[in-house]
Amino acid sequence: MREFQFRILIILVGAILTAASWIGLEHPRMPIFVTAQTYARSTEPYYLETSASSQQTAKVHAAAVHAQPNGIAAYWFGGSKEGASDVAIYQAFFRDNSWTKSSVIANRETLQEDLNRYIRKVGNPVSVQFDDGTIWVFFVSVSLGGWAGSSINLIESTDQGKTFSRARRLVTSPFLNLSTLVRNPPVKYVDGTIGLPVYHEFIAKFAELIRINRDGRIIGKSRLTSGSDTLQPTIVTTSARQAIALLRYAGKPPKQLMMVDTEDGGRTWHHPRQLTLPNPDAAVAAIAINDMMLAVLNNSSTLRNDLSLAISIDDNWRAFHQLEFAEPETLSEFSYPAMTRDAEGIVHILYTWNRKLIKHIAFNETWMDQQLR
To answer: From residue 368, how far is each of 36, 41, 49, 187, 322 by CA, in Å?
Structure first.
């Protein structure tokens, strides 16, 4: 009886949060995605491995990346350990085949000063660069408790990342504005707004898409999933109105990657389904390449010791190349991938390497084609 009452309470709380979060939103009509660009293909294969982080901190995690006209920009959090008071948000740039030294763009102290509130820890940066060069970096912060008590903050740069504005806190829910987290990059709409994929961990685990205008104001929200098993959506647009979202799966076995799709620009999403690819309750990254989708994932149902490339052709997914592998007894971790394509069409992947480095791998379509043969 108590279990039944608890489930009813969870359902009621979820319903209240969902209804309240919609109040006052505009829900813009006719959302149209900016679709992936087509690049000229080089005949020579290109492949590079390096490190984005400068080993300024003992631990690093949760990289984000976006393309720039002359390279890429990367972000992550680093400190003595995850959740420690010395953790900060770092930034570095990859230009002319080398990385700049990483620098701090936000930390507990600066955020406390900006928001005039106590901040216990920060993490999970996510970035986007607009056509006019403006950079937005979202990241989470916690004042009390664990990551389930997170709120989202936004800082802005109008000088290519040299300086950033004071942080502002997004109000994603009127219920204490808690338990909204980011992990993967926004999708862009043709009207200049963005769709920021977010997820919730308090009581239940589910994913949403928040529509934000260029003033940084939330103007719409749609639910991708419900229940308590899916989080950290990564969204890939496949046409002006269609997109798919791959999701980390935190439910019971079989431990497999989840997918959900939309046909109306993200206003509504179909029921999620399991893919044949495994997922050990770990983050995934994905982008579109021509008529294919490319993903980076942990190709295991239990561990993060295998990081692999996977591809979808005609909705059929398969892993085809192993980026990292270590025997289980080593307790190695290769996780939290992020991915983008630069102005020349080079694919860039960043990920956590044993919590010590933000590793960087870059390649072109010709190299990828060789691995697919």
So the answer is: 18, 11, 15, 24, 12
**Non-local CB neighbours of 67 within 8 Å, separated by 6+ positions:** 129, 340, 341, 342, 343, 348
Structure-token pair, residue 37: 């660009």
- Pair type for strands 135-142 and 151-157: antiparallel
Ramachandran bin of 330, using left for φ above 0, alpha for ψ from -120 to 50, beta for the remaining angles: alpha
255-297 pLDDT, tens digit per residue, is 999 999 999 999 999 999 999 999 999 999 999 999 899 999 9
Q: Where are the domains of the chain?
A: 2-372
Q: Which residues contact 173 (CB under 8 A, 6 or more apart)?
A: 17, 20, 21, 179, 180
- Alpha-carbon distance of 281 to 27, in angstroms, equals 32
What's the CA gap between 172 and 267, in Å, rounded? 17
Tell me: the pLDDT tens digits for 208-222? Answer: 999 999 999 999 999
Task: Give the pair of three-digit tokens for residue 331.
Answer: 């307790």
Model confidence, pTM: 0.92
Q: Which two tokens stand for residue 193?
A: 């707004």
What does the block give as tokens for 119? 């901040």
Fold exhibited by the domain 2-372: Neuraminidase (2.120.10)
Extract long-range pairs of 2-11: CB within 8 Å, 24+ residues apart: 10/203, 10/204
Q: Compute the distance between CA of residue 48 and CA of residue 46 in angstroms, rounded to an integer.
A: 7
Q: 206: which strand partners?
A: 200
